[in-house]
Amino acid sequence: MNVLLTNIKQLLQVRDSRVTNLKGAAMKELPTLENAWLLIENGVIHNYGDMVATPTGSFDKTIDCSGKIVLPSWCDSHTHIVFAGNREQEFVDRINGLSYQEIAEKGGGILNSARKLQETGEDDLYMQSAKRLEEVMKLGTGAIEIKSGYGLTKEAEMKMLRVAKRLDKAYPVTVKTTFLGAHAVPEKFKDKKEDYIQLICDEMLPAVSAEGLADYVDVFCEDGYFSVEDTDKILTAANKYGLVPKIHVNQFNSIGGVSVGVKHKALTVDHLEIVSDDDIRELQHSETMPVALPACSFFLGIPYTPGRALIDAGLPLAIATDYNPGSSPTGNMNFVVAAACIKMNLTPEEAINAATVNAAYAMGLSKTHGSITKGKKANLIITKEIPSYGFLPYSFGSNCIDSVICNGELL
Amino acid sequence: MNVLLTNIKQLLQVRDSRVTNLKGAAMKELPTLENAWLLIENGVIHNYGDMVATPTGSFDKTIDCSGKIVLPSWCDSHTHIVFAGNREQEFVDRINGLSYQEIAEKGGGILNSARKLQETGEDDLYMQSAKRLEEVMKLGTGAIEIKSGYGLTKEAEMKMLRVAKRLDKAYPVTVKTTFLGAHAVPEKFKDKKEDYIQLICDEMLPAVSAEGLADYVDVFCEDGYFSVEDTDKILTAANKYGLVPKIHVNQFNSIGGVSVGVKHKALTVDHLEIVSDDDIRELQHSETMPVALPACSFFLGIPYTPGRALIDAGLPLAIATDYNPGSSPTGNMNFVVAAACIKMNLTPEEAINAATVNAAYAMGLSKTHGSITKGKKANLIITKEIPSYGFLPYSFGSNCIDSVICNGELL
Fold this sequence. Notes:
Two copies of one chain form a homodimer.
Chain A: E1 2-12, E2 32-41, E3 44-50, E4 61-64, E5 68-72, E6 74-76, H1 88-95, H2 100-106, H3 109-119, H4 122-138, E7 141-147, H5 154-170, E8 174-182, H6 193-210, E9 216-221, H7 228-239, E10 244-249, H8 257-263, E11 268-271, H9 277-284, E12 289-292, H10 294-300, H11 307-312, E13 318-319, H12 333-344, H13 348-355, H14 357-361, E14 380-385, H15 391-394, E15 401-406, E16 409-410
Parallel strand pairs in A: 1-4, 1-5, 6-7, 7-8, 8-9, 9-10, 10-11, 11-12, 12-13
Antiparallel strand pairs in A: 1-2, 2-3, 5-14, 14-15, 15-16
Helix pairs in contact in A: 4-5, 5-6, 6-7, 12-13
């Protein structure tokens, strides 16, 4: 099966395979080929070039991309899309001025999401999650990380991860899974957090590992959730099972989460709405990718991650949706790219790099995703006819996507 | 031609024809019919009711709305969608830290939009604008106000309004037009603002009126643009031609724009990012509708209109997109409804009322638009299968619209 894309107005993010992530000033560059063709063979990018020398031969399908821009699909490196039910009532309660306690009593919050998830059968959970995955694929997401963390029991956490693995098998999108047992302390461990951490380390991690359900481990390192010491303990335990950390840090407070992440060679540290100079220095001496989640900031009204300052400090940056029912009920990476420009002052080049090359790095997919590179997966976005790629973040309320190719398949 | 909608999960905004606008606490109510049918005849809402008693007879078309919510189309009472070219480069320049002066020198700002518009032929301008109108119709907008204001010469202002009138004739959406000659002072009148105001009053207004091109008159009443005295003069002149004011006030400063608007019985005062207690008192003793433009606040990073405070003070409120190339490059009313909830703390009921009933009032369309009322235009949004109408603002990054009916036609 081969597919030829012709007359591409601009082919974005054309990279050598050795480029795995971009830092600081390098994020300003977006290598582009004008008036190009691209050939897909068996689901991978076989070749590409200038229209002055188009390939000859017969092709199963030819797609005319006149006036259209082609770029690699978004990689969404931080989501919680496997969940049961929605929490729009909680959103409305919040507008109506209900307190956190009142919302929790009415059935809101992570712990109540956990109860709902525990009561939902695996097939039902799969169907609900598949619907979300199908939506975000149409919005251009070609690789997605999915966390557990609404289970909070061994069984329910594993149920979530099994659903994520089933999604990976059933859809052309690439799925990476992360075990986030340490998302919140369950009600029954209210005054016995240590016991819950022990359960994570002694029972959940071995079980998750034995079934090969997780690629990464995550901890919500934050005041009122898991301390730096708790995080250290869980990451140390996870290390025995070969699980690399991708952790929630600095959403509300800078308590040392970045430091413990770097110590454990975390692939990513995510959120970072609050960042100290020490945090920046730690990251400068690491291979850890900071990940910003601007849709969460928009929805909750909390500060945006100072992405501009991180890049100006020479750091790399990835952006992701944080799709979840409580704090970021969207999986639309196009909005995230726009918000990164509008709210975090990233240039379109920086935002696109943050959502493709660097986002692929943030989920361990540098070899196969995130750029237009021979041999990488043919995961592509074909835009509508738009005047320039700057139009993507500029027209933040429009859907600029004409069609999406995932693993060589036209959706 | 008749069309029957059956099995509607919820029919929203079912109102008596006497309800023309909602103030204060009344905005919290959204009258709803569960499990309903609705019959369209010859482009108007003929009748509706409970599925226990569905109408019998034969219908040209029957649409099954199982699991779906039906509501009146959005009315977008403040846009500038007739413009030439886009300004995404200016957006990028702003991110890159260019000053206003540098951006203007590179070809940005209203005055440069005006130059571009003056150079664009009427047919080209029509084609560019029609594309935008088609997009927003698919996003659920069933009535739209369009302003001039990028012409700034008699000829160019009239060209813009003629294009808006052509759009009204060519599309099923209802278009209202507003003459905004006083959008900015043109370069050639730089130190002779009084002369430009004279030109507006003595030449533009008579010409616009003679051709019947405008329903309303608008002025950008703001420091550095047109003063309260300038505004008073223009509105007084417009009054002779029967043009009711809908004016730009309080975007950056509260300089008395609300007061001069109320004095001239303005139908609406729009923007209101900065509101004083005096402004609120003026509005409490008027029939003038305040209009908030949250997409502009999002894009520019300026304060959101204190919509919550206005409603709590017993006022009505409408919301609109402000679609324009410089400060709000979106015509997506769904985003505006979401942002009104997320950023201005309106409940879903208040935001939907602000975008339908009150928005119809804000463009003089109370008799025909803005609610599910027998005899009103069949301008309807049919949502996808969603759990509740609160899901519309909650899932701010999703397109929840399944289909749109405009003037009885399924788009």
